[in-house]
Amino acid sequence: MGIRKLGYVGLNVTDVDAWTDLFERTLGIGVTTVKSGTDEVALAELDVFKYRVALHPSTVDSPREIGWIVDSPPELDRLTRRLTDAGFTVEDGSADEKQLRGATQLRWFTDPVGYRVELAIGEAKVRTGVARPAGAHPGATGLGHLVQAGPKVAELRELYESVLEFKLTDYRAPGLFFFRCNATHHSIALAHAETPSVHHLEIEHGSIDDVGRAYDQARRNGVPISISLGRHMNDKAISFYVQNPSGFHLEIGCGGIEVGEDWVPHDFGVSDVWGHHHADANPFAFPKSA
Q1: The VOC domain covers which part of the protein (predicted)?
Q2: Each residue of 20-40: pLDDT tens digit?
Q3: Is CB count within 10 Å lower at the N or C end of the chain?
């Protein structure tokens, strides 16, 4: 498969300081600020690579780009042809954009709901160990997955499954689908919603103790816990969710399963083995009264 993993997510945010405080004080994640063109961009350092989440100061809170890492230049060319044949216009990223992402090649297109999706070659490894604020535990180990909701699930499925060659891992009727681009259970999930949004980003942690420490720290710091600690039915991950300053969720989790080539997609029925109680109505509850 040409796409190897979820590489990074860029966000337009109205309160960079609040995001930085959440990352550093609660989650123990280092944030650095760099100049990109005329913009000051805050980069969240989840692992040894340059960044996984970029925070761009803005007057609105919105997704800016979703970045996927591609195996090789020939695979990037092949995926570009597939996208073009499917009717997408593929553009080259600018020199500033490539430098910020640490990529040697960068191309992008617009998905069916209007989000910018990027395909990148290369990742800039900028440290030998995970950078953490003073006193922080090992904590985060990387960016796990995102859940994208919107009104064009069929078109998004066609893009990811038929054009970009993701594999369906499992689903919940009537409209929640999980896709993988490597052995990890899923790197993206697609769900129906009236308006396009990112429901959540998942930040991988190394152990249940790291997840538990983050849970305690979130409670101490008054961070809104939007979904309580629990274990998912499909990927078996243990996690909780916080509401971030832009209004959607960050999932703090560990222990998700890997699947092999012989995996058979199936409806996994109920959402959780235990826990994951929602502070507000669950938009993915089936039926809606669940």
Answers
A1: 5-122, 142-255
A2: 999 999 999 999 999 988 889
A3: C
